[in-house]
Amino acid sequence: MLLDELDTLAATGVDVSRLMVSGNAHLIMPYHQELDRVTERYLGKNSLGTTRRGIGPAYADKAARVGLRVQDLLDAKIFRQKLEVALKEKNAVLAKVYNRLPIDADTISERYLGEYAERIAPMVGDTVGLVHEALGRGANVLLEGAQATFLDLDHGTYPFVTSSNPVAGGACTGTGVGPRHIESVIGIAKAYVTRVGAGPFPTECTDEVGDVLVERGHEYGTNTGRRRRTGWFDAVMLRQAVRLNSLSEVALTKLDVLDTFDTVKVCVAYQADGARYELPPYHQSVLHQVEPVYEEMPGWRTELCDATSLDDLPPAAQSYVGFLAEQIGVPIKLVGVGPGRDQFVRFAA
Q: Which pLDDT does position 1 carry in this prediction?
């Protein structure tokens, strides 16, 4: 996929010559993807809703210390040795548990040590040194995370999570930068909530409201094309995200998706068995049973896509954003009002 993305960018005129790939990055192998697919099918209704891209199995091999890394592409002998060790186990599982054909080591070696190694080799380097060199000369370094707080392996809605730590602390372990270098942490949140795949979702809208959010927000998975689950803004979850990530501010996206609603809702707490929760309950069984406590606010019934300043936002939209900031306890400094790069408003909430 990396090479495909590079080709796509190059075809649009983007210069990709400065890209550096860490030699420590792990490779997602064909057997990881096959195991991901057959495991999800085997689990049936209990499936985790993965993207079936092989990410989970690759992380499992990383933890088991049998993964192949980018630097292995630069040593054909080491690559082949590690591959044969991995395939001995993977092929046994695929054949005996899932009745699948074995994966051929020669085919993989030819592809990975041929075209892949030839193209990637010039990009492989010491990314830790690169970042620290930039920090040493006083440059600004932007670290962009992937996925979401509640997909975190340790702090998310386990087992409906990813296999890594997408919370802000993961930026340190992933880049080799210590926490003292992190000066600010900006959280990205939609003006409503979405989720792909299975897992608890207290504010989920399974009615026409959910349909409107999906269609207006184009809520379909980037990798899988699957329809995302949608729901009203959940301040309980975002309060926890603020704590887990030490957020200094929030950028709120897709406010314009709510343009057509007469009223909008914000979940300010959960309730279950007579108890009220301002933060997510630690026990997942309780989380699956909670009911959202909503505050209802007037909608603005005005298209926001042309707004360029705070004054361009209707009072109801300003009140909504201000209320969200009060609920989560950190300022919302930027509000997205459309899909374009320049479609945002600076907000001082």
A: 80
Summarize the confidence of residues 138-143 as an average pLDDT.
96
Give residue 198's pLDDT band: very low, low, confident or very high (50, 70, 90).
Answer: confident
CB 178 within 8 A of CB 172: yes
Q: What angle do CA 47, 158, 189 make, to 5 degrees?
A: 100
* Each residue's pLDDT tens digit, 50-78: 667 899 999 999 999 999 999 999 999 99
The mean pLDDT of 196-201, rounded to a whole number, is 90
Ramachandran class of 49: left when φ > 0, alpha when ψ lies in -120 to 50, beta otherwise: left
Cβ-proximal residues to 48 (8 Å cutoff; 6+ apart), any chain: 40, 56, 159, 160, 197, 198
Q: Are 201 and 157 in contact (CB under 8 A)?
A: no
| 0.85 surpassed by pTM | yes
Burial letters 36-71, b for 16+ CB under 10 A, else e: bbbbbeeeeeeebbbbbbbbbbbbebeeeeebbbbb
Among 302, 304, 295, 296, residue whose Cα is nearest residue 335: 304
At 250, list the tokens. Answer: 């929030």
Which helix (DSSP H) or strand (DSSP E) does residue 210 occupy?
helix 208-217
Tokens of 262: 């007469």
Cβ atoms of 162 and 48 within 8 Å: the answer is no
What mean pLDDT is predicted for residues 12-35?
A: 95
Cα dist from 292 to 159, 272, 278, whole Å = 22, 9, 10
Task: State phi, psi for 204 to the nearest 5 degrees.
Answer: -60, 135
Q: Which residues contact 41 (CB under 8 A, 6 or more apart)?
A: 47
Classify the phi-psi angles of 51: left when phi > 0, otherwise alpha if psi is within -120 to 50, otherwise beta. alpha
